[in-house]
Amino acid sequence: MLTGYLLRIIVIAIIGGLIFFGLRKIWRDWSGQFRKLDREDDARRRARDLAERAQPGVIELKRDKDGTYRPSDGDENRSR
User: Fold this and answer.
1) Membrane spanning segments where (predicted)?
2) Which of 33, 49, 55, 76 makes a 20 to 30 Å CA pair with 19?
């Protein structure tokens, strides 16, 4: 009688472990996929920003000593 309860506990523990580790693997796979998509999105956004920055008429602002953003010295000639 005690072996029947022990056998049930062992079977339930094994099934619970399989479910837990299966869900853990699914979570890791999805998390990795989402991180990969985020990196690709960041790379696309960076490329777009660099292309926009290279266009004529774009002024790049630098932070001055007093905390105010002002055009840097080289950008004033580039925008004209």
Assistant:
1) 6-27
2) 33
Cβ neighbours of residue 78 closer than 8 Å, sequence gap 6 or more: 56, 59
**Count of domains in the chain?**
1
Rounded Cα–Cα distance for residues 79 and 58 (Å): 6
Answer whether residue 23 is part of any domain. yes
Place of tokens 């693997």: 25
pLDDT in tens, 16-62: 999 999 999 999 999 999 999 999 999 999 999 989 888 888 888 88
